Amino acid sequence: MEEDGKKGPEGLALDMANRHGNLRRVSTDEAHLNILRHITSSRAPAVINYGASWCSSCSQILPAFLRLSDHFPKLSFVYADIDECPETTNNIRFAPSFHFYRDGEKVDEIIGAGEERLHDRLWLHS
């Protein structure tokens, strides 16, 4: 997983190995805009997990999100902390929120945490 040495929710290090290279973390507005440009110009499916360090539900689902990235190698996985990307995530009203993209378009969204629900939606969009 590409990362910038920062910690995730509750200090959880986001340096877990990802064997498919399909996991990224964005921690600036510029990086978030670059990822969104790439996703919207690509036909490849992607999911963005919007979370926050102060959010206990985000802390609970993040390890599952990281694990699931190994089970769905055709999906691009992105973690974005809404406090680190305040200008480009100001439309995110709930954390965690998962946005799903296909063929350059946002096609789905989940608000809240739940590993089984997240797995099912990832399967649907992979």
Automatic annotation (TrEMBL):
Protein origin, superkingdom: Eukaryota
Domain Thioredoxin: 38-119
InterPro entries according to UniProt: Thioredoxin-like_sf (IPR036249), Thioredoxin_domain (IPR013766), TRL33 (IPR044193)
Signal peptide limits: none
Annotated Pfam families: Thioredoxin
Protein name as annotated: Thioredoxin domain-containing protein
Organism: Linum tenue
